[in-house]
Amino acid sequence: MHGAAFRSLGLNIDYRAVDVAPADLAEAVARLATGPYLGANVTVPHKEAVVPLMHELTPAARAVGAVNTIVRRGDRLVGHNTDVAGFLQALTELRTPDGGAFEPATDLAGATCLLLGAGGAARAVVHALMSVGADVHVLNRHADRAGRLVEQLTVPEAPAVSGSARAVNTAQASLTGARLLVNTTSVGMSGGPQPHGVPLLDPEHLTLLPGGASVIDLVYRPAETPLLAAARRRDLATQNGLPMLVWQGALAFTEWTGVAAPVAVMRHAAERGLVGEPQ
Ligand code: ATR
Q: CA-based angle 260:215:66, to the nearest 5?
């Protein structure tokens, strides 16, 4: 995705995957500040561990407690979390029931959103939804983890965050009246723990969602998970994880280069990259 973007703009920039063991993380990050680098993306399991290694954090990275993008500014490293804005940008690709474009700040202010999962991806999404004023209900297999996530994200030090979050024990009550359902667990992912499963709820429960609700699954492999298939059968608006993947990348691209990201090129490359992968 990034290679295609750099090539399409004639930028002589190389983007490579580097495998870094946890014990080597500090050294690898320090190299970023001295070598010929614009920055880096960070993924599992390092997103939280790099936080104390940054010279500076954006408010989103600080609030979420995780960095997915490192931007080099001279000899300083700035930790960003473009998953937050990437998720909000992906939401704008949803359609409202009257066929208009979805506007998170309008469509989700005061709305109930049910979020499944309490891992790293959930933290960014809960913060994003709270930042546009949503009331987020978090359901997780291990309930204590959902409680901890809510506690960590609802600190009063984030004045820009107008929404709220709370942990819930079952999906049913939250689905009634919810505007949005988001799966952040790996259930339904090919090669994941339960590739043919629907996370934490009975697909029948989707009938509790109002007709205008949307369902997002952050899984993008397969393109349609069992959860999204069930939502489509109910005629609900659906989205898989590809738009968020592309948008978090596009935002990182712009931070590194100062240039508007060629989003269509990136999306096409990401889609093409997934075609060759086992479903
Ligand atoms: P990520 O950073 O991608 O969010 P993670 O931190 O490992 O990954 O989180 C994975 C999420 O998927 C967690 O919410 C996990 O639930 P637990 O916290 O209870 O482990 C959830 N998950 C994984 N396998 C699951 C399964 N079989 N059923 C329900 N939830 C599952």
A: 55
Is residue 141 lining ligand 1, measured as CB closer than 6 Å?
Answer: yes
In whole angstroms, give the CA distance from residue 69 to residue 265: 20
- The average pLDDT across 112-129 equals 96
- CA 5 – ligand 1 centroid, Å: 31
74 Cβ contact partners less than 8 Å away, ≥ 6 residues apart: none
Pairing verdict, β 237-239 and 214-217: parallel
Per-residue pLDDT, 35: 85
What distance in angstroms lies between residue 36's CA and the mean position of ligand 1's atoms?
36
Model confidence over 194-219: pLDDT tens digits? 999 999 999 999 999 998 999 999 99
pTM for the structure as a whole: 0.95
Spatial separation of the C-alpha atoms in residues 80 and 78, rounded to whole Å? 6
Residues with Cβ within 8 Å of 241's Cβ and at least 6 positions away in sequence, in order, are 216, 217, 218, 219, 220
**So what's the pLDDT on residue 155?**
76
Cβ(145) to ligand 1 under 6 A?
yes
DSSP state at residue 47: T
For the Cβ of 206 lying below 6 angstroms from any atom of ligand 1, the answer is no
**Catalytic entry in 1, 2, 39, 47:** 47
Q: Is 87 a catalytic residue?
A: no
Given ligand 1 and candidates 125, 144, 185, 227, which is best to mutate, with the most ligand atoms within 8 Å of its CB?
A: 185
Residue nearest to atom 26 of ligand 1 (CA): 187
Q: Give Cα 24 to chain centroid, integer Å.
A: 26
